[in-house]
Design goal:
The protein contains 15 helices and eleven strands. By secondary structure, it is of the alpha+beta class. The chain has two domains: 203 residues, Cytochrome Bc1 Complex, Chain A, domain 1 (2-Layer Sandwich); 177 residues, Metalloenzyme, LuxS/M16 peptidase-like (Cytochrome Bc1 Complex, Chain A, domain 1). The strands form two sheets. Strands 1-2-6-3-5-4 form a six-stranded mixed beta sheet, sandwiched between helices. A five-stranded mixed beta sheet has the order 7-11-8-10-9, with helices on both faces. A hairpin with a 4-residue loop joins strand 4 and strand 5. Helix 3 packs parallel to helix 8 and helix 9 packs across helix 14. The chain is globular. The protein starts with 5 loop residues before the first strand and ends with a strand. The mean pLDDT is 95.
Length: 412
């Protein structure tokens, strides 16, 4: 990571993180907000996704076409996204156009108009996406798993929401959600590229520095405590393939167990040389697709392994997944397995920090997760220090009894 990183908190609470990079005449900015689907009332599930979709469709002074013309006429990129833990507006321009596009972004964030016609259009598109996902076995399996694991926690729900909740969201709901959460002390802005730190900070101050903090403090979440209560669920479908998932509640990003779990995830499911791919697909021919994932989360995460297999192999494939997870508890990784997994993860970690956009994303992401810029070096150090004994201890701590989700035909 570059060394000339500067972090400044403006008087109104906006956090600005900048680093100059003259390699190319490009500037990327990421505007993060400490909101996301975890902040949604259950009856308004999907509202942050819908807000992201309509935010760029008009402001008090500009129409959707005006905004599109300003961006496209200079070949810039401007887009929005929402995740479980944060909201994001992304900008990418050549350096000469960055000021204009950033100022446009400031207007979009502060003064969205939420046109009724655009809201109804995006609601229909979202509902179509929700219906489409119900036809995708993998998505159904993970949704089923997530609901079992997280219960009343907001992580149980898709960022899209449900057809019922999305259909009931109104323009007034969007305005209230925006007014509640879009505030300067909820914002992190990371800017990377052909612009000096001083100029970048000054631009943010000129554009958003007069945005006043509300008198009320930001909303703090009171989320339910989760304890493992392993269960299983099966959705029967007439299909030639079954999706089997084993899920475990796992450490959040602030835990010391995070680095060992990331290493185990790499060992199990990262690439064609991973343990699950070699054992269950190459050697035993059980898998169309097999892997593992362990997402980085502010709150309690999940560690999930999955396999797509022929329906007649459902039982044996499920047993194979369980055997691999139990093996991690019973046996230590060899020194070679440990080092290869570290090298693979560190290499991919480095490759994810090459472009201005990637660096801006990571710097803002660390901040919105509450980790700080020092996390970059800290994580790599923690990963390097993981021993085979520690990896086994972490596996024994989390991989006790799985939640099991199956979509397809279960042959037990």
């Amino acid at each position: 990571m570059k060394k000339n990183i500067e972090r400044k908190v403006l008087n109104n609470g906006i956090v600005v993180i900048t680093t100059e990079n003259k390699t190319a005449d490009i500037v990327s900015a990421k505007i993060f907000l400490r909101i996301g689907s975890r902040y949604e009332p259950r009856e308004q599930a999907g509202i942050s996704h819908l807000l992201a979709a309509v935010l760029t469709k008009g402001t008090d002074k500009l129409s959707s076409l005006d905004i599109a013309h300003k961006v496209e006429s200079v070949g810039a990129r401007l887009g929005t996204d929402t995740t479980i833990d944060y909201f994001l507006l992304s900008i990418k321009t050549v350096s000469t156009d960055f000021t204009d596009i950033f100022q446009l972004s400031g207007e979009i964030i502060k003064y969205p108009s939420f046109p009724e016609t655009e809201i109804e259009l995006e609601k229909r598109i979202t509902i179509q996406s929700i219906r489409s996902q119900l036809e995708q076995p993998f998505t159904v399996a993970f949704s089923q798993l997530r609901e079992m694991m997280y219960q009343n926690h907001p992580y149980a729900l898709s960022t899209l929401g449900t057809e019922k909740t999305v259909s009931q969201i109104t323009r007034a709901d969007l305005q209230e959600f925006h007014q509640t959460h879009f505030r300067p002390d909820n914002i992190i802005i990371s800017i990377v590229g052909n612009i000096t730190n001083a100029k970048a900070i000054n631009l943010v101050e000129q554009t958003l520095g007069d945005w006043q903090q509300p008198e009320t403090p930001p909303i703090t979440l009171n989320l339910p405590t989760l304890t493992p209560q392993p269960s299983r669920a099966t959705t029967y479908q007439e299909t030639q393939q079954s999706i089997i998932m084993l899920g475990y509640l796992a450490a959040n990003v602030n835990s010391y167990d995070y680095a060992p779990l990331k290493l185990i995830n790499t060992y199990l499911g990262n690439g064609l040389s991973s343990r699950l791919f070699v054992e269950l697909r190459e050697k035993r021919g059980l898998a169309y697709d097999v892997s593992a994932f362990y997402p980085t989360r502010i709150d309690i995460s999940n560690f999930t392994v999955y396999i797509g297999t022929a329906t007649e192999n459902t039982a044996i494939a499920k047993a194979g997944l369980r055997e691999e997870m139990e093996r991690l508890v019973k046996n230590q990784l060899s020194s070679e397995e440990l080092q290869v997994s570290k090298n693979k993860l560190l290499g991919q970690y480095a490759l994810g920090k090459q472009t201005n956009s990637q660096i801006a994303q990571i710097l803002g992401w660390y901040e919105v997760l509450g980790l700080g810029m020092e996390f970059d070096a800290k994580f790599q150090e923690n990963l390097t220090m993981v021993t085979a004994t520690e990896a086994q201890e972490v596996a024994s701590k989390y991989f006790i009894e799985p939640y099991i989700s199956i979509v397809g035909s279960e042959e037990d």
